[in-house]
Amino acid sequence: MHPILKLVAQRLSLGILLLFAASALLFGLTEILPGDAAQAQLGQSATPENLANLREEMGLNRPALTRYAEWIGGILTGDMGNALSNKLPIGEQIGKRLGATMFLAFWAALISVPVAILLGLVAVRYLNRWPDKVISGSTLAAISLPEFMIAYILIFVFAVKLGWAPSFANVPPDMRLLEKLHSISLPIAVLTMVVLAHMMRMTRAAILSVMQSAYIETAELKGLSSFEVIRRHAFPNAVAPIVNVVMINLAYLVVGVVVVETVFAYPGMGQYLVDAVVKRDVPVVLTSGIIFSAVYIILNMIADIVSILSNPRLRHPK
Amino acid sequence: MRIPLSALIGLSITSVYFFCAIFASWVAPYGMAETVGDVWEPSRLGFLLGTAPEGTVDAQYWLGTDQIGRDLLTRIIYGGQTTILIATTATILSFTTGSILGFFAAVSGGWVDQALSRFVDLVMSIPSLILALVILSAIDVTVVTLIVLMGLLDSTRVFRLARAVAVDISVMEFVEAARLRGEKIAWIIFREILPNALSPLIAEMGLRFIFMVLFISTLSFLGIGVQPPMADWGGIVKENKDGINFGISAALYPAVAIATLAISVNLVADWVLNRTTSLKGGRS
């Protein structure tokens, strides 16, 4: 087998293994910690009788392994059972909300990825001069604030004081695209700022390490124009690290939506998860938790596979 | 020893925060749960800066009052106490567990190292906020469980760093010599590896501390961290967030506190990191 195919296949199977291990870890944690889903749901008011009844109803008396197998099987077939708090089917809710979250994350990524790469290039081009210092300084400030703080500062300035954008992101399905975008403009701005800061810092570091290698110096010394140096020598080597950075930050974006959706009351997966944690609805928390983790693991896996594929040393086996 | 200006600024702001946190009950002008005025009274600071609404003559409270009329400055000082206490304890827990296990994995090698490292890989493959949310939905949320949860989750990152540093050290001659004279594993970890691995770990400590501050603030903001009536910075934002829509900036003051603390700790950590790396450069 070709070594690239072999490596990619290895990484894919590792990813799948990791997905199952992560689901087992999440499930196992809710099992071994004191108390169970029934106890968490009933809280202080639990009497031994209604606790036993709820356990019976939820099937908590059966062995953990059986329930784990059923849970995984349910996720794979789309039948995820019902929520404890309002008895609504989890699968239906997630189907609706996953799309909303992806919509938000897609637009945030569409804006932040090109801007981050551009700013990273500018920072390296003017290394240690004022554009670099301004960019690095402002990204440090953005990293030092939690997402919800950036969100409220933006709401205070743009929604309340200036009245440019709504402070609640409400997107009914029959809304037109432009109206939807206007409605989620502040959440997109927050996500963009948070991810942009991380992505730009990592892009800067990645390009810097390529630009400082010996072969770039050689290319400059043999008289290539700076455009040719970048096109023929720097760019091919910088693609892999940059794609890696982008993927890692998209994974980060997926987690960032949890907080941002809560702030803007946006009906997505993040809000669903946080609501369920507050209501101590363990089945919903577990299922949405594994979906978030799966997206995170898959994006990280894609990052690894891209860096395998873009490594020319693997393309020509000895 | 000359301390650069940026580190000096960082160091003094950090000290002020820690001082206020430790002596909160002396520094704070009012009691933590004491109602002193009306709901969301304007701040004296806003008055002095000229941003107060038209017609206000003077205001009594430096940062105004919160959603039920408590003095906001007092709340932020007490909130800082909770946030800094939790973040500091969790950082200490994370460093002790992470570095001891990391050194242990590096010194033992073989299947112990493999088992620990693969388990850490697994935990790190799940975003820590998601993992924390899943765990917090199943246990009782108290300050102690929050500290243990955050400390253990974060110790995976310290483990990786400590293991990487210790793997380099454990192949050096003096460690080999200690092994040959038959020292126990605890001696090798604490007397041979720890002193040589300390400086990169201390530089990392500042960054982990900031991460803890942001993490506990996020959890409290989501309503699953520190529970009322205790105050912490994330919780103060949650309590006062409705005021934002009426143009009341009470919820934004904790943001200033978090940002200044994070940036000043960063400045100190940068200086420590530069000092230790230049030290190494000078030696070789």
Structure write-up:
The complex is a heterodimer of chains A (318) and B (284). With 318 residues, chain A is mostly helical. Chain A folds into two domains: 74 residues, no CATH class; 190 residues, MetI-like fold (Orthogonal Bundle), CATH 1.10.3720. Chain A has 14 helices and no strands. By secondary structure, chain B is mainly α. Chain B is elongated. In chain B, helix 1 crosses helix 11 and helix 4 packs across helix 10. Chain B is built from eleven helices and no strands. Chains A and B meet through helix 1, helix 7, helix 11, helix 12 and helix 13 of A and helix 6, helix 9, helix 10 and helix 11 of B.
What's the structural blueprint in terms of helices and strands?
The complex is a heterodimer of chains A (318) and B (284).
Chain A: H1 3-32, H2 37-42, H3 48-58, H4 64-77, H5 90-125, H6 130-143, H7 147-161, H8 177-183, H9 185-211, H10 214-221, H11 226-264, H12 269-278, H13 282-309, H14 312-315
Helix pairs in contact in A: 1-13, 5-6, 5-9, 5-11, 6-9, 7-9, 7-11, 9-11, 10-11, 11-12, 11-13, 12-13
Chain B: H1 5-22, H2 24-27, H3 44-49, H4 72-108, H5 110-124, H6 128-138, H7 143-170, H8 173-180, H9 185-222, H10 233-244, H11 253-283
Helix pairs in contact in B: 1-4, 1-11, 4-5, 4-7, 4-9, 4-10, 5-7, 6-7, 7-9, 8-9, 9-10, 9-11, 10-11
